[in-house]
Amino acid sequence: MNNINIGHNNPPKKTRDDLIKQRSELTKSLINNMKPKYNGLGKRITPQQYSDSKESGFYVVCSSKEKVSFWLTISSKRYFLSSQNLPVKSFTITENRELAKELKYSISKGVDPREVLKNKELERQKEKTFSQVIDEFSQKQIKNWKYSTRTAFQNRVKVWINFNTRDSRVRNIIDKNFKDLNIGRLKISAITRSVLTDYHKAIPYKYQANRILDDLRIIMKWAFSKGHTKTEIKLEEKDFHEELKRIEKADPYSPEDWLKMRAVCVKNILPWSHKQMDSVEKKRLVSKLAILLAYYTGRRYRSEVLALKWNEIDLKKSWISLKDTKEGPFSFPINSTAKAILYLLNRFKNIKDHPLNFKLENIKSRYVFPSMTKSKKNHINDIRKTFGYVCKTANVDIKCCYFLRHSFWTAQKNLSTDAKKVLGGWKSNDMVETYDKKTDKLKMEFRDQAAQTLLQYKSNR
After folding, report:
1. In sequence order, what are the residues at sequence separation of 6 or more whose Cβ sits closer than 8 angstroms to the Cβ of residue 321?
2. Which of these ranges, 139-143, 364-368, 391-395, has the smallest mean pLDDT?
3. Domain span at residue 49?
């Protein structure tokens, strides 16, 4: 017999079917590592094939370096399901596995599987892409959003979905991660949690990535409610990048730094000092006063301090009643320093030739900090330039303007957490507890400085 010497040293030759057929659960990593076998001349010898262990008859074939194809074999008949470029996504495998399962069920019911595949293709052609769903959402859902929220959303879609940007750094990111970022071309049914998380990871800017992922979560929830997709996607907290609070990125201004900044702001602030100012200083005057008031009230500088109106202020009762804040209408008392600043601003209005002297019939006179130039809003909307000048002149670090609010509440060492929460207008203790930690840190630094000063004094004696 020819096979008498067959053993582990002389194994039987494998047939072509044995070489290409390997059974295993089809996964993303398994398929993306598939390669057809080539001979020395570079010509294809045999494709590589894996049969799925989860769904019998379902398998994948790799016949080139760029593509794989999914097939179903049942009753000795082969049915082509789809062809995909490498690397494939997890949802692609799941989608084809479900299609194979559906075809097997239709065959058991006596339905021609070719008709099922034909109908699926027609449905796929009619189905909207993710970009089309986003456009529909933008047209119907964001009209009543706040202007700043609506504009920010539109800008994110413009850059990260439509890839309409001139920023060379963003263009490089898009080119480098195009396969993960180009989800707008996908059909809405192909959008899964894994697709969105891969998209999120491809954006290196953590804050921006979290905002756009949250936008897409809202869009997919709306698409599910409208019947554009049959699956509801639920993202978890771990799918987002962990973000530091703005106050955790840098320390607020210390009391010593603020005293230096205040000295710059109060220069030439007296009622008649405007005659000695040049045109640049006159323009800075309003912004300097806004910086002072923002600190001594501890309110949000842009939406609450700069937009403050005289009819919201009661100087006799030392009280301000804001009609529109982040938490809704809010009233709070003001300290003597803030009251003195407002008295000074009110007096400037009646001084002839003063930068803040406006006619009563002028609409700008309603605002505490009126715009000195033509603008869409009748009050100044940006004090960053003057704030940078103040910091530079005072020789302190230039930080963002919202650190005025952080610095004020951190400096309130004698207020309890509940008192800070009520006076600051927060709904939860989260932000207040962050301020308390910063306050404790400042106390420790003050004690260390006092101890070092005392030791130095004793050593000098």
Report:
1. 312, 314, 329, 330, 331
2. 364-368
3. 19-124
